[in-house]
Each structure stands twice: as structure tokens, then as C-alpha cells.
Amino acid sequence: MLPSVIRVAGGVSTSRQAAMAAALWAGTGSLVSHGAAGSLWGLDGVRTTRVEVWVLAPRNPRTPEVTVHRGKRLDRADRTVLDNIPITTVTRTIIDLSGRLEDDALLSLVEASFRSNATTPERLWSRLVALQSCGRVGGGGLRAILESRPDGARPLESRLEAIVWRLLDASDVDTPVRQHWVFANGNRYRLDFAWPHVRVAVECDGWDLHGRRERFELDETRRADLASIGWRVLPVTWRQATTAPHEVVARVRMALRAA
User: Is the dihedral of CA 243, 245, 247, 252 positive or negative?
Assistant: First the structure.
């Protein structure tokens, strides 16, 4: 598979085998890292066929099949094992990837990691600050995401929610409550973003949520229940959020003023 690394014949070569082969080839102390680590961890939106490893300097192994990152040290807090593969932790992997991702994609990845309990806001913040204090990583975009995140906020549920949250957070409207629960007509509903004091909410309306009659009936019942207790719910689609963000914010602003 790589210089000095062979695979027992038979079966199908997998991404995990490729990662293990790279770690063995890179030598003692090396770790699968960056995009390869993100893919193995199943991080939201991270897809790659390229294996990346981190090695201790001054070692500098080279092969066209593997991207090598070098450093003087990698703290124990950033090291772990996945299926016997030495790999960077989810927390360190997110930090390493933060400079590669656009803001919306990074926010979606971070929130998905919180949602799955792969890491926590406190853990991610602690490692980011520790690494930045040593001058070893950038992570400016990640730091901004964590600094603007409300304390105790529930994780966002989708990439669309991440985009809408950034729109609202950057606007002049009051900061909404995320993942707000409402009881109406004996039913319990979760609103993506809400201003409970005036009963205005924003719902991220994805196409994949519809298409079935059962889903349609549930949506209409939900809409009616919320309206019956005075909630004004503004749907936001992917196209609206990505092609007309100012219009989305303007509608929210008008709804809040009217309420």
C-alpha cells in the first residue's frame, strides 16, 4: 500500500485501511489528521479520499499518496485511537479544519459535533485557546463562532439553520431563542428560532422534509396549532437564505415590529 506497508491479500481496501497504512508508514507518534480524520470521525460535511497524517519534526517522510503535516509536538489531549488507528481527537480535528471551511460549513460542522456529543463548546473553546496561546493554530473563524454562541444554546439542526442563524446574528434584530419548545392544543412543537415575548418564529423549511401526504398533514396541523395560540411563523427556504438574505432579515424585522 505504501513503502514498507503491505496489506494481506483478499477483501476490499477501505478508507480505514488506507488511514492505518499511512499511520504505520509515517512511524511512531504519527496520527491521521485534518480531512482524513474528519472523514473517519464522520464529521458533518467532511468528505475526502486523501489521507493526511501528522508527524513529529524533524521527521519528514514523503510519498505522493499521503499529505504530511509536521510539528514539534502534539499534546496528549489531542491524541486518541479509532478502530486501532492513531488519530487526532474530534476537538483537535475541528480546530485543524477550521481554516479550510467557509463560515456556514464550519458552523454546521461545529453544531453537528455538539449535537452528537462528539465534543462540547467548553472543550472546544479550551483547546482552541490553549493552542492559540502557544501560537500553533489560527482558528479565527472558529473563535468567532464560539464567542457569538449564546451560553447554553441548543445545537443547530442543519446547514440551513446555520446559515439563517448567521444572518440573524449579524443583523440588527434581537437575538432569538434557538430550538424553542411550544405547547399548543395538546401538542409539543420545536421552533428553530423564536422571539417568545412577541410570539414570532422563524422555521428553516427544507425540501427534504416534504413530499409525503403524511408529512403535509402533520405540517398543516402544526401550522394551525401554532396560529391558534397567536404564533406568527416565518418559513425560510434554502434559496431564500442563500440568494436573498437581506429579504429574509427584512421580513423578520417587519414581523417583529408588527408584533
Answer: positive
Residue with cell 476490499: 12
CA 95 – CA 69 distance, rounded (Å): 14
Cβ neighbours for 134, distance < 8 A, ≥ 6 positions apart = none
Please report, as a single letter, which amino acid is at residue 121: P
pLDDT of 179 > 80? The answer is yes
Cα separation, 50 vs 180, whole angstroms: 40
According to the model, what pLDDT value does residue 132 have? 83
Say what the pTM is: 0.85
DSSP string, 218-247: HHHHHHHHHHHTT-EEEEE-HHHHHH-HHH
Q: In angstroms, rounded to a whole number, what is the distance separating the alpha carbons of residues 39 and 75? A: 22
> For position 212, what pLDDT does the model report?
62
SS3 category, 33: coil
Residue-wise pLDDT tens digits, 83-101: 999 999 999 999 999 988 9
